[in-house]
Automatic annotation (TrEMBL):
Domain of life assignment: Bacteria
InterPro entries: Cro/C1-type_HTH, Lambda_DNA-bd_dom_sf, MLTR_LBD
Any Pfam family hit: HTH_31
Protein name per Swiss-Prot or TrEMBL: XRE family transcriptional regulator
Organism taxonomic ancestry: Bacteria, Bacillati, Actinomycetota, Actinomycetes, Kitasatosporales
Domain HTH cro/C1-type, residue spans: 13-84
A GO molecular-function descriptor: DNA binding
Protein species of origin: Kitasatospora griseola
Length: 281
C-alpha cells in the first residue's frame, strides 16, 4: 500500500482536480454564494458514494482507498485515463518495478541492441525515474553524450530543464519539456516519494529555479507522439517524429524513439552520426 508521503500526494492530486471542476461539469446547479473554488468535498463524496468524513481524510492522506472506491472517486472527478492511472499508482495499485540496480543493468543490456538497431533514429531507455539507462549513437550525435553529464543528473527531466545545449537546439522546447514532466507524474506513482525522486527535484530546484512551478504542478498526461524539430550546430534543421513504448521486461521503463520524417531528414541524421567517424579517420 502507499506510504504516508504518497497518500498525501494522492490527496493533493485529487484536491487539485476537485478545485478545477465546476458544478455544471458534473450535472450540478451552482448556488449564488459559492466560496469554495470548484466542487465542494461533500459534492465529490456524494457523487462517489462515500461519506464526507472519509473523503476528507482521503484528501488529507489519512486513509487508503480500495481500487473500486478510487475508481468511483475518479469518475466523480472526471479523471481521464492518464489521471486514473496516476491515482491508482499513488494508491499503491501499480505494476512491479526493478528492485535494485542490477535489475536496471540487466534491462539496459537487453534493450541496448534494440536501440542500436536504429542507427539513424535517436533512441534512449529510461527507468521509472526517467534516468537514462542506455542510448544509441544517433542519440549522442543529436543531443550530445549523456556520459558528459554527472550520473546523478543523467535524467531526462534534468536534461529538458537544465541542459542549455538541448534547450538551444530544440525548437518549441517548452511544450515537449512540460509533457515530459506530466508523463513522469502520470507513470511514476510511488516513485514520487522515494529518495531518487527527492534527489532529482533538489537538482532541478538548484539548476533550473525558474521552472520550480513545474514540479509543484499536479497535472498529468501521456507523452504523446509529435513532430520534433532540432537544429544541431553546423547542420540544417532535422524533423523527427517522437514515439514511445514500454519494454515487455519492465512496464515501468520507457523507450523514446525519434524517427526521421523524410529521406532528407534521414540523410541529415546519417551525416550527424558519421561526422565523428570522419573526424577520426
Amino acid at each position: 500500500m502507499s506510504t504516508p508521503a504518497v497518500s498525501q500526494e494522492l490527496g493533493a492530486f485529487l484536491r487539485a482536480h476537485r478545485e478545477r471542476l465546476q458544478p455544471a461539469d458534473v450535472g450540478l446547479t451552482a448556488t449564488a454564494r459559492r466560496r469554495t473554488p470548484g466542487l465542494r468535498r461533500e459534492e465529490v463524496a456524494s457523487l462517489s458514494g462515500v461519506g464526507l468524513a472519509w473523503y476528507t481524510w482521503l484528501e488529507q492522506g489519512r486513509v487508503t482507498a480500495s481500487r473500486q472506491v478510487l475508481e468511483a472517486v475518479a469518475r466523480a472527478l472526471r479523471l481521464d485515463a492518464a489521471g486514473l492511472r496516476h491515482a491508482m499508482r499513488l494508491a499503491g495499485y501499480h505494476e512491479p518495478v526493478p528492485a535494485d540496480r542490477t535489475a536496471a543493468e540487466r534491462l539496459a543490456d537487453a534493450v541496448r541492441p534494440v536501440l542500436d538497431s536504429w542507427p539513424t533514429s535517436p533512441a534512449v531507455l529510461l527507468d521509472r525515474h526517467f534516468d537514462l539507462l542506455a542510448w544509441n549513437a544517433a542519440w549522442t550525435a543529436l543531443w550530445g553524450s549523456p556520459e558528459k553529464v554527472d550520473v546523478d543528473r543523467r535524467n531526462l527531466m534534468w536534461l529538458m530543464a537544465a541542459d542549455r545545449h538541448l534547450r538551444s537546439v530544440l525548437h518549441d522546447w517548452e511544450p515537449l519539456a512540460m509533457n515530459v514532466f506530466q508523463h513522469f507524474r502520470a507513470q511514476a506513482g510511488p516513485a514520487i516519494a522515494d529518495p531518487r525522486t527527492d534527489e532529482l527535484y533538489r537538482h532541478l530546484e538548484a539548476d533550473a529555479p525558474d521552472l520550480r512551478h513545474w514540479w509543484g504542478c499536479h497535472t498529468v498526461a501521456v507523452l504523446t507522439a509529435r513532430e520534433v524539430v532540432v537544429s544541431p550546430p553546423a547542420s540544417t534543421a532535422v524533423h523527427l517524429t517522437l514515439s514511445s513504448f514500454h519494454p515487455v521486461d519492465d512496464p515501468s521503463a520507457l523507450v523514446l524513439l525519434f524517427t526521421p520524417n523524410s529521406p532528407a531528414d534521414l540523410a541529415r541524421m546519417n551525416d550527424l552520426v558519421e561526422r565523428p567517424l570522419r573526424a577520426t579517420a
